[in-house]
Amino acid sequence: MKRSLLIYILLFIMEFSFHQAFCQENKRDTTLFNEHQVNFEHMDFISHIRELKVFRKYKGDTSRITICADPYWISNLVTNEEYSIYLNIIKVDSLEGVYQNALPALDLLNQKIKELDITLSEYSSKQEYKYYPVLGLSWYQARKYCAWKTITVYAELEMAQLPNEKIYRLPIQAEIEFAKKIVDINLPVISKIDSTYNNRDIVDFNKSINEWTGEAFLESTYFTKMSSEKDSDKIVIYRKKLNANTFGEKEKGFLNVGFRFAQTYRTVKNSE
Fold it and tell me: What is the pTM of this model?
């Protein structure tokens, strides 16, 4: 009950907070931690404060704005397997309705993913696609996964007598852009765990998947600054094949949109 209450409180806080612009088994073995949780999650570190000029287009209007990003950690795309573990946990250990609200919309399940010629329902359940990115989720659902992950990791770090880290969150567009200049953001996380794993089909598929970002906007302020999340019903979707953005409603899921998580930089101890 206490854990469920903590999850609910964090989900509530994150749902209405402002965006800061600037199966493994259910219970994991924390003795495997190495240089804190980020290495355990196989995240990549992107150093240095940077600026990026971003081209944005909305309803015929265009603009180039500069976005800044502090050093940060970034993950690979969250997979079907990772999201399935999350669903199994909250189904047993969560408040009523949380599990149902974490599932893709029913009208998406029978739609076909054109690159694979299978339905979303088949894609989500077949073992051969477990390392592929989870799809069909809304921005809200992706955020709630990050909130759950933060609570879970805080509990694990406390058990391992390690300090709490920064929260897990959706990356802003600039962070995805910076990362792709340094690491291959299309690699599946399994390739970091198993160096012998090589599936070009996943890499090629990941190249076609757009991503949710943490950036919201209001039409009245969009071309001058990022808006707060609670004031906007639209979110920027990072597009991998085009320089311009597209936009999605927070509550709507899309077949070609996945997500990854990030953490603002914090000091990590040496492994010696």
Answer: 0.80
Burial environment of residue 47 by CB neighbours within 10 A (0 to 12, 13 to 18, 19 or more) = exposed
Tokens describing residue 224: 């001058």
Between strands 257-258 and 210-217, the pairing is parallel
On the CB side of 153, CA atoms within 13 Å amount to 21
3-state secondary structure of 150: helix
**How do residues 48-96 score in pLDDT, each as one tens digit?**
666 766 666 666 666 666 777 778 889 999 999 999 999 999 988 766 6
What is the distance, to the nearest Å, from the Cα of residue 147 to the centroid of all Cα atoms in its chain?
11
pLDDT in tens, 133-189: 999 999 999 999 999 999 988 888 888 777 777 899 999 888 898 898 889 999 999
Burial class (CB in 10 A: 0-12, 13-18, 19+), 96: exposed
Structural domains in the chain plus CATH codes: 2-264 (3.90.1580)
DSSP 167: P
Name the DSSP letter for residue 42.
Answer: T
C-beta of residue 255 within 8 angstroms of C-beta of residue 120? yes
Contact 62, 120 (CB under 8 A): no
Q: Which residues contact 36 (CB under 8 A, 6 or more apart)?
A: 157, 162, 165, 268, 269
Radius of gyration of the chain measured on its C-alpha atoms: 18
Specify the amino acid at residue 228.
S
